[in-house]
Amino acid sequence: MRRIAFLSALLCASTLMLPGSASQLVVSGQTTHAGIQKLNSVSWYRSLAQAQAEALRSGKMIFWLHILGNVDGAT
Question: Is 29 a member of any domain?
Answer without folding.
Answer: no
